[in-house]
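We close this part of the discussion by returning to an individual protein. The sequence in question and its structure tokens are set out directly beneath this paragraph:
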Amino acid sequence: MKETGDDRNMNEIRREPLLGRWVSVLSESMKPEDYLSSMEPSAGGHCDLCEEESGGSEEIYSVRDESGKWLVRVVPAMVPVFSPEGDLGRKGVGIYDRMNAIGVNEMLIESPQHNVQPEDMGSDQMLRVVETFTSRVIELEKDVRIRHIMIHKNCGVPSGDACGHPHSLITATPVIPKRVKEELDGAKQYYEYKERCIFCDFMREEERLKERVVMETPYFLVFCPYAARFPFEFWILPRIHNCSFRDITEEEQRDLSETLSIMFRKLRRLLKNPPYNYVLHTAPSRIPRRNHWHTLGEDFHWHIEVMPRLKSIGSFELGSGMYTLTTSPEDAAKYLKEVSHGD
């Protein structure tokens, strides 16, 4: 990037004006040969996340046992795209818009053990992870520059996991990503037309039909969406309407941790430990555009989307945005419901 001044060494985000999509651009470009290096997660040997000083920086947050040994840790991401230091530096470049990549990249280390997932460490470990998510979202939302916070996870090579140690990510951005904005706008339009939350309607319809429901708990419903993008994709929705994950109750936290543990074990047993991604979509900060989001509390509903990566995305899907499901959501739900989650 050819910038001058204090911002010249910062990553930036650029807005694509046709679709309104934001992309991150690194200040130091990778060279062609950099892409040829192996991206396989470490199966053994040295792992930075197994070390006490994991992440190469000071600890942001941790949960420890009585002896002081860490059980869950939050550290800065190893290669952060966003930085909390500096200002947004919004500017136009001809017809284009850009700003500094102000934000936060955090890594939540879900397990002290390299090859043991939190769902395999007992019921309390996943609860620690969920409680840490909540604590970090509440803390990060205090920064008025932050517009959106996403909790997400890459597990397995095709998902983008280049580490191998159980971890998830927390990314806070100064803009609302396009995929999230489309969801927010769709929910807002549905509410304006029907005066009901579309996600609550999803749950009512899925519970009425039952054919795509995988799991029902006191506080959550798990189902394969009617028009899923990926085979065996499933969503987890809280039964109690709430637009923001930060407002989750203690009872919901415990129920969610049990639900996640069961579903990840089901997925692993059914599909032989598949790579997957998950994202948690929650309400954005309403401070910058309070008037625009005045019905957000009624029209949006936080939720988790889990997407197994069982097949490559082809040129038609990339070019059209239309996905091809090789297993119907109805059959996927049947398989997921029937498979045991025990060892």
Residues 178-338 form a domain with the HIT family, subunit A fold (CATH 3.30.428.10).
